Amino acid sequence: MKYVDEFRDAELGRVLAAEIVASVEPGRHYKVMEVCGGHTHTIYKYGVDDLLPENVELVHGPGCPVCVIPMGRVDDGIAIAKREEVILTCFGDMMRVPGGSGTFLEAKAEGADIRMVYSPLDALRIAKENPEREVVFFAVGFETTAPSTALTLKRAKQDEVGNFSVVSNHVTIVPPLRALLESPDLRLDGFIGPGHVSTVVGARPFEFIPADYGRPIVVSGFEPLDLLQSVHMVLRQLAEGRCEVENQYKRVVPYDGNPAALAVLAEVFELRPHFEWRGLGFISSSGLKLGPDYADFDAELRFGVPGVRVADPKACQCGEVLKGVIKPWECKVFGTACTPERPIGTCMVSSEGACAAYYNYGRFAREREVV
Amino acid sequence: MTQSGPTASCDEGHCVTCADEAVRMLVLEADGAGLARCEAPDGAHTEVMTDLVGDVAPGDALLVHAGTALARAA
Fold first, then answer.
1. ipTM (interface pTM)
2. Stated pTM of the model
3. Which residues of B have a CB under 8 Å from any CB of A?
């Protein structure tokens, strides 16, 4: 396939890997965080990290939106779903995310009408087909996904679909990165920046990372060669004493993002004063809620939700995994009490989650063998 | 249904939400009002919102995430 096969070429991969080996300083340990869950998935699916020298460590960041949903928000969704008139819709990867009172899948088994959709537009279609029911879309995602929710809400308003509403759990990428960089237990040399978030926001919002924290960042595509090249670009910046935002994914990412997408986000959403992130706690100005012009479509206002904060399970170390402080397999319950079939932590739920990626691609067994 | 097949599953290998995944699709037909019927690599047909990429025509390649074209693909 055009623009896919070229970025999976094994020979080019070996050439890049050799260049990476040549660019690292012997005796120095490099920690580079890939922010995005999609990158984590590619790294383990294709064994990208196997091509890196031992002293280059990839650390997995908080860029899986399902993994950062706190338990209380899941409980809020279940409370709405249990109302007789409601059809709750969500992406499939939300179905097994544990809340304090179970998962959407368990609520569905108990009789709640919860349906998986592939896009918010599907949820709006269900609303139009079921005018006697209230159809709620449980929205998750970073700036990549939020425009889809925003455009759907514009259509709902335009078509006067009164039985459609949204629980917005949309989040923004810059505040958690800033929080990570402020974290005293974290030492990172550089970042691999999220590719498709950047199609919306551009690469410019990441300029604070080199400017304020002296770390390089390279916005990266999702194929194996994209990631190898991005790692190489970060290491080259470090070797040359440079520190800037570079865009490896120029074939898709404009430096200033997509103005139409940014405009629709500004029209429909506004920043919450703070939003809770699983494992990371409350982060200021990091969540999006529906703005005043779309308040009629805000399911939290329409139905009222418990809004109770539920502490993360003590055994689960998702927070440390999301901050890159520990590897997934170092968590006490990884692969034993916590598996993709019965996840305790959200990092084990989504295929983009660091724990699930480790588990599904055999890292669990391999790491334990090494130990 | 706007979905005639599984363009993205939430199983091993793909996660529709997440967050940073996008699928390259080809436009089959456009309604001129911000919606287009598109074909995914696996042959499935999906209705896609194209408001963010301007006018599209059959044969155009788009990068689609959660039912919205985020960018044009080469």
1. 0.81
2. 0.87
3. 1-3, 7-22, 24, 34, 41, 46-47, 49, 51-54, 63, 65-68, 70-71, 73-74
